[in-house]
Design goal:
Length: about 170
């Protein structure tokens, strides 16, 4: 195995572990702005950084593995469904928008918004009502703010990684 491949595999493992650790830490923080379902999105920070420093497939698998590990460890079937739907939609949009040369911060903000849209879609299906969409403006605002915060941090980390070749 060549040296670069070993580095990429090691980086992948570190990113999965870091995302899972951030998920755990976030589960300990009673951070919801008195709004149910709102989180900082610390683990999404790792996914955004991975999107910029790794191959898209690697970043996608980091997101999925993290969601599965966190859902099976700290959640239940419903939280896993919400996270998977939100995470997949968020990742797909971030991947597409990244190609437009939007800033890391903009990509992260759109990711935060789309994650919440995905969760509302699952909630509407689970609750069998579209009325839950009334909650969407609150979640979109929260997604913008948390996406902005994670985007600022992601930009700093991505800038550091640009000096490292993998």
């Amino acid at each position: 195995m060549d040296k670069n491949k070993s580095k990429r595999i090691a980086l992948f493992g570190i990113m999965v572990a870091l995302a899972f650790t951030f998920s755990y830490l976030e589960s300990l923080i009673p951070f919801n702005f008195a709004i149910p379902g709102v989180k900082l999105g610390l683990a999404n920070l790792v996914v955004v950084v991975a999107l910029y420093i790794m191959k898209p497939a690697e970043a996608f698998f980091i997101a999925i593995i993290r969601i599965l590990l966190a859902g099976l460890t700290f959640g239940n079937v419903y939280s896993l469904a919400y996270s998977l739907c939100g995470g997949i939609l968020s990742f797909a949009v971030m991947l597409l928008v990244k190609k437009t040369k939007l800033s890391v911060i903009g990509v992260s903000m759109l990711g935060g918004i789309c994650h919440n849209i995905g969760q509302i879609i699952v909630a509407a299906i689970v609750m069998e009502t579209a009325r839950i969409a009334y909650y969407l403006p609150v979640l979109l605002g929260a997604g913008l703010v948390t996406g902005l915060l994670m985007g600022i941090i992601s930009r700093l980390v991505v800038n550091r990684f640009e000096k490292i070749k993998f």
